[in-house]
Amino acid sequence: MDVPSISIMVDSTPDISKKEMYSIIVRYTRNFEIEERLFAFGEMSSKVGADIVEFILAFFKRYGISTTKIISQSYD
């Protein structure tokens, strides 16, 4: 991802079977335009903070996005 910085938003909601589904949304600017993309959506059986961090970091590693580009974070 060739942008200088990114903002991430992580949210979760239970599905109909009460499994926690997490989404990672990334916001960035490109050519002076704000872009927002849903980058990941997945199930997690745990609500433990360390497991959530592992889910987020695995996403960044999988897509080759440097975590040093993160300038803001939002969680719900």
Write a concise keyword list for the protein shown above.
76 residues; alpha+beta; 4-stranded mixed sheet; 1 helix; 18% helix
Proportion of residues in extended strands: over 45%
Strand ordering within the main sheet: 3-2-1-4
- Molecular shape: elongated
The count of domains is: 1
Structural class: alpha+beta
The number of helical elements comes to 1
Low-confidence stretches: none
Summed over residues and divided by their number, the pLDDT gives a mean of 90
Helix content: 10-25%
Estimated radius of gyration: 13 Å
Distance between the termini: 25 Å
- Strand elements, count: 4
- Succession of helices and strands: EEEHE
Protein name: DUF4371 domain-containing protein
Describe this structure in words.
- The protein is α+β, with helices and mostly antiparallel strands.
- The protein has one domain.
- Helix content is 18%, strand content 50%.
- The chain has one helix spanning 49-62; strands spanning 6-14, 20-30, 33-44, 70-75.
- The chain has a four-stranded mixed β-sheet with strand order 3-2-1-4, with helices on one face.
- Strand 1 and strand 2 form a beta hairpin.
- The protein is elongated.
- The chain starts with 5 loop residues before the first strand and ends with a strand.
- The mean pLDDT is 90.
- This is DUF4371 domain-containing protein.
- It comes from Rotaria magnacalcarata.
